[in-house]
Write a structure and sequence with these properties.
With about 625 residues, the protein is an all-alpha fold. It contains 29 helices and four strands. The protein has a domain of about 240 residues: Fumarate Reductase Cytochrome B subunit (Up-down Bundle), CATH 1.20.950. Helix content is about 55%, strand content about 0%. It is elongated. The N and C termini lie far apart (about 140 Å). The relative contact order is 0.07.
């Protein structure tokens, strides 16, 4: 009899092959787990990290668009990186759903469910976040508000997920303010008792207490979190809110937060009372809210903030929106915009026209003769001394002003533009925000002191001349005092630059442009100094004046500083550095001696005066 033929089912063979490959994978996984057994057992007694420790553990959603990531960092438990490090997975996830593999469909984690923790000596402890639910139910961020916000944000939370996840992610311990050596020293002291005699995980307990004694987020991270809703157009429209996050970030406190300061006020510092739970945040209309108009003064004057301030400090605007405001601040801003246009604008126009003349090669017909006259006079000791426009004392005052101004710009404008990367870099190079503020205030005090010194210098000049001229003529005769002739010459200069006048107007030792800049320094120093002192001593200011003065002072200080930088950085520097007649820099502020080309063009009347005193004949090129 022939043997019966065995027919093999192809599908059965393929299934068997898949099973063999699956078994081989399990064996390989088991070997890997055995190699990592010590870490896994220490961090995960239930063995969940056997699979979840791999970064590639993901699944594409049924909609083929979403991706679920199931990776869990084992270091979180092994190194006690956060307050959940002593929890088992089944303290949050339903045991019946995850104890089998593959897992059963899992329900969303309920953050308020009771956790059964292993206490000292094996005694079970029960813990729950249900008190947080109680606080939230009484706050402005109640369940209904969070549900509506989640919907308006595009439903980032799935149905059934805990509303806590709208604001919270996996918490980790903040280790700011203490380095590793300090931490090890503290842990060593703890272990003196908490070892075999009083066993305790001192590393976890230390960082738990250390982290919970400080805010869980940095000030800037807190602003970003609040911006999730408070900068969302749909949420703001629904709850009738303005963009409080944006207005906070442009405020004094917000700029400090952008530059990394943890000492400045954050959202929670103002909107949550010091002794209250942060989840119990009340509307400013509620009587017990720290932002209520009856409580706001004490909120600002807390021991951690403006403890020496007056009650009126609460009227300073923290969430000022100039675009929608129509108060005094808005009109001050408009006024300074007009000032910038009508002061910097003409100066910029004249500077641009001068540069255009250099490019096209247009010169005053008398320029060559004036240049020869200047070179001739400068070659003689007597006239050379008479043509020296600045004494050593005046040059010292100028460089003193330069030092103050540059320091103020370098330390002040990074704070103004705190959200820029370059600003953070500059502040970091200066040693941090506290050092930058200190340098700014010292430079400001030096600038004010320099102003008073110069006023004394001017008064001595007036006192010397009043005996022969009288007090009024002595004041009006000061070299930098603007007079009707200066206004006339400015008109003539503009006419020459636009082609309506053939020759450049003859100007003396100090031309009208220099006089206007000089008056601008006086004006700017007084305005910047006054507003700076008000802000520096804000506590004393608000004891007698409304806190709104501080808001106005910040606006005026900012706009005036911007105006000063425009004039000095563009107009003045173009005249003393970029002008071909003085490039790469005017020697006048180094030696006091003005170059011949500059004398010939901008101070021809001074040349004529010195030449006349020397008994000269006027020379060619002089025109009346």
């Amino acid at each position: 009899m022939l043997p019966t033929r065995q027919f093999i089912d192809p599908e059965h063979a393929a299934t068997s092959d898949r099973r063999r490959r699956f078994v081989l994978r399990l064996v390989a996984c088991a070997i890997t787990v055995a190699l990592l057994a010590s870490t896994v057992r220490a961090a995960d007694p239930e063995g969940c990290l056997t699979c979840h420790q791999y970064r590639g553990l993901t699944r594409i959603g049924d909609d083929s668009k979403s991706v679920a990531i199931f990776y869990v960092n084992p270091n979180y438990w092994d190194k006690a990186l956060g307050p959940h490090a002593h929890l088992k997975c089944t303290d949050c996830h339903q045991r019946g759903e995850v104890e089998v593999f593959p897992h059963n469909p899992t329900t969303a984690v309920d953050c308020s469910r009771v956790c059964h923790l292993d206490g000292p000596g094996g005694v079970e402890l029960r813990f729950s976040h249900d008190r947080i639910d109680h606080f939230l139910s009484q706050s402005i961020h109640g369940k209904d508000a969070l549900t509506e916000a989640n919907h308006l944000l595009g439903d980032p939370l799935r149905a059934g997920q805990s509303q806590c996840l709208l604001c919270h992610d996996e918490p980790v311990f903040r280790r700011a303010g203490e380095n590793r050596l300090q931490a090890q020293a503290s842990l060593g002291r703890c272990d003196s008792c908490h070892d075999e005699q009083l066993p305790k995980d001192t590393r976890y307990a230390y960082w738990h207490v250390h982290a919970r004694s400080e805010p869980a987020r940095t000030n800037l991270d807190m602003a970003r979190l609040c911006a999730t809703c408070h900068s969302n157009a749909a949420v703001r429209a629904k709850f009738d809110l303005h963009d409080t996050t944006a207005s906070y970030l442009v405020s004094f406190h917000g700029k400090a937060a952008l530059l990394g300061s943890q000492e400045t006020a954050s959202c929670l510092d103002c909107h949550v009372a010091q002794t209250q739970n942060v989840h119990l945040m009340l509307s400013h209309k509620s009587a017990g809210a720290p932002t209520n108009e009856l409580q706001l003064g004490d909120t600002c004057r807390s021991p951690a903030c403006h403890r020496a301030a007056g009650e009126k400090i609460s009227t300073a605007a923290i969430h000022l929106d100039l675009a929608t405001s129509r108060g005094a601040e808005f009109f001050i801003a408009c006024l300074f915009v007009v000032m910038i246009v009508f002061t910097f604008g003409p100066s910029l126009l004249i500077t641009a026209l001068k540069m255009l003349h250099e490019v096209i090669g247009r010169h005053d017909p008398a320029a060559h003769g004036n240049l020869l006259r200047a070179q001739k006079l400068l070659a003689l000791p007597g006239p050379r001394h008479q043509l020296q426009r600045f004494t050593m004392h005046q040059r010292f005052q100028h460089w003193y002003l330069v030092l103050c101004f540059v320091t103020l710009v370098v330390t002040g404008f990074p704070i103004k533009f705190a959200g820029s990367d370059w600003a953070a870099w500059v502040i970091g190079e200066l040693g941090g925000l506290p050092m930058a503020r200190l340098m700014h205030r010292v430079a400001g005090a030096m600038l004010i002191a320099g102003l008073f010194y110069h006023l004394g210098y001017v008064l001595l000049t007036v006192r010397r001349d009043r005996k022969t001229k009288g007090i009024v003529k002595a004041v009006l005769g000061l070299p930098m005092m603007i007079n009707p002739l200066d206004l006339k010459q400015m008109g003539q200069l503009l006419a020459y630059l636009i082609g309506l006048r053939r020759g450049h107007p003859e100007m003396g030792r100090f031309n009208p442009e220099e006089k206007f800049e000089y008056i601008g320094v006086f004006w700017g120093t007084i305005v910047l100094g006054t507003t700076g002192v008000l802000m520096w001593f804000n506590g004393e200011t608000t004891r007698y004046l409304s806190g709104r003065i501080l808001t106005i002072a910040v606006l005026i200080h900012t706009f005036e500083a911007f105006l000063a930088l425009l004039h000095v950085g563009v107009v003045h520097m173009a005249g003393v550095v970029l002008d071909p007649g003085v490039f790469p820099a005017s020697k006048a502020m180094f030696s006091g001696q003005t170059p011949a080309g500059e004398l010939a063009e901008a101070h021809s009347a001074m040349l004529a005066q010195v030449e006349q005193q020397q008994g000269g004949d006027g020379g060619e090129g002089h025109h009346g």
